[in-house]
Amino acid sequence: MNNLLFPGQGNAQSFSRQASPYKGISRAGRDDQYQQDNDPNRLMLRETGAGVGAETMQKALSKDREYERILSQLRTEFSRIDINRDGTISIDEIIRFLNEQTNGTVDTGIAEQIFAELDDDGSGTIMLEEFIQNYFDRQKIIKERITQIEEDTKVHYESREKLIQKLKEQRMKERLNAYGIDDDAILSVRIIEARDLTPMDITGKADPYCVLKLGGQTQKSNFIKQELNPVWNEVFTFDVDTGKEIMEIEVYDKDDFGTDDFEGQLSFDLVDFVDQAPHDLWFELSGKNPNQKWQGKIRLVIQYVFSKTKMLTGYINMWSEQIENSEAELKELRAILKHMESPFGFIQGFHMKPEVGKGAQEGEDGKQEPVYDLPPQMVQRIEKLEQHEKALEARIDLVANTFAQRAGYNSVPWFSLTWYLLWLYTAITCLVMFMRPDYFNLTICTTALYMMFNTDRITKLRFKMLTFGIFITIIYDLIWFFLKHGEYSEEPKTDGSGEIRIRRFSLMMSYASFLLRFFVALVFWKDSLDFAKIIQNKEDVEVKQEKKDTGPKNKGIFLRSQIR
């Protein structure tokens, strides 16, 4: 059977090299192993190489037995599915078997897909040899994918660790100027190519080149002879002082006997690239007169680096996300592999795709947002809104971090700031309620406090809903001020108990709460964008606190072990 299914035993050899599922041994087994490893006769055989063949043979025998066990299990499963006992499996038998396993809830489409994958020769029936071969093929694919992910994840960990070390070094030496950007801030512009330039020569061609200008700095590219679709692929670097500069690029046609002809121009603001990532973009060229029709476009790769600390942090977060996705995929692949080893797991697990499953992640952390089947137009609007959000966030970060640097921080501690503002908001709301029933704001405060104490139980969407709720309270207070301001500010006829002072105090606190809520809403909106970082920040704080609490105890144990 082995030679029939796997000619030359190549596949059997390949399978035998896989790791054995039996990993554990008893204490007695470890003692016996220790005696065997230190046996003088075995040591001599190992040193001379004479014992290697026996040990290799023993391992090969163990793997061959495992191989035979799987073959026996596959034959049993095949026999179970082959209801009419004709030595083949049909699509009807597959559906009937899956219905038995799922209590009649099998999807016919999935059953047909499984059958098509098993029926290699397209004969409409599945032979035992096809059934067995498919098992080992699928197992091999999954194991190879697991190995690849493990290797990639190791590289990702190493890359992230190197970036973390660079980040620590950069934080020590980074100095921001009065505009909140690094003294070594740079703008990198790679001019890739241009298309459809205007012909300027009598030959119907052009000799185009580019002139780049930024804050008094000017650089020029090489010119390309006789080309309307030139390819430069040149990189230019500019020093940036304020971050408010505008890059201007002009394209000319080089003329040997006169003034160079104008081909077109473009400009862009550095503020549009504060995410510090490289952007590969096409720009339409325009004439000197905005109303003049022009032709031609140019492709640029733009990267504005104004804070290496932020750039490194972004790359670290990117690697962390990649590692998280890889580990989730590994977890699912191993689950599929384990499921295949169970009785009838091969055929049931055929529809389990070796991909990162959203359901697995949801079950693990419960933080995944619900996915809805939205119309394409709605999806496009949401994507545009998210792009505007990111651009606005980048600008806010730029301004906020400038103030943070002046206050002695590397960046704005948004998570801590959220706590301070929330406690202040709650305290002012309680003061307001001395004379004014303000249960709306009190409800928002209570909800926000619950969310901050239980960030591991909530989602990013709820942070945005809370922001929306705060804006509703602002509208509510505007209406309340319009209706109740006169009542709370006028003097009553009698003030024997100091009611006028309490009412005015409550009104003043209402105004203070009203103004404060604009900042609270802004911070919670920022938190909704940085939700993953908030979770990580909380976990880091808990880990540090745990280490702080357990540090002396662990140290004592270590010292006692040294004394022994």
Automatic annotation (TrEMBL):
Domain C2 residue range list: 159-283
Keywords: Calcium, Membrane, Metal-binding, Transmembrane, Transmembrane helix
Stored Pfam families: C2 (PF00168), EF-hand_7 (PF13499)
Xref: Gene3D superfamilies: C2 domain, EF-hand
Start and end residues of each EF-hand domain: 69-104, 106-141
Biased composition (Polar residues): 10-19
UniProt-annotated stretches for the region Disordered: 1-38
Keyword check for Calcium: yes
Residues that span the membrane, as ranges: 414-434, 461-482, 502-525
UniProt protein name: C2 domain containing protein
Entry keyword Flavoprotein: no
MF terms in GO: calcium ion binding
Listed SMART domains: C2, EFh
Entry GO CC: membrane
Organism: Stylonychia lemnae (Ciliate)
